[in-house]
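Try this one yourself first.
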């Protein structure tokens, strides 16, 4: 993986807030993710030190996956096909 970042306004680099665009690429050079217009604000030393007194347990979280039905059988999807089925349908149309 590799990344590329671009500062939107070079004159703002010395200010309190900067805006950047970021892109993440896989080893083959394919675009994997991008963030456009990420705003970052300079933090004071005191602001950062406020968070060092918390315990490490406050930093951790747990991801728990819950099984869900496929989109076609889920009423929340409104009967739309799954993304995989839609991709297969588009692929078939492009090949014909």
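Now uncover the answer:
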């Amino acid at each position: 993986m590799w990344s590329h970042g671009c500062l939107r306004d070079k004159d703002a680099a010395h200010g309190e807030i900067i805006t950047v665009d970021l892109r993440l690429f896989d080893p083959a050079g394919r675009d994997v993710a991008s963030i456009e217009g990420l705003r970052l604000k300079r933090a004071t030393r005191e602001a950062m030190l406020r968070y060092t007194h918390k315990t490490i347990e406050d930093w951790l979280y747990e991801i728990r996956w819950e099984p869900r039905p496929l989109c076609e059988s889920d009423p929340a999807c409104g009967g739309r096909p799954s993304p995989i089925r839609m991709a297969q349908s588009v692929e078939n149309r492009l090949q014909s």
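Discussion: The CA atoms of residues 89 and 95 lie 10 Å apart. The radius of gyration is 22 Å.
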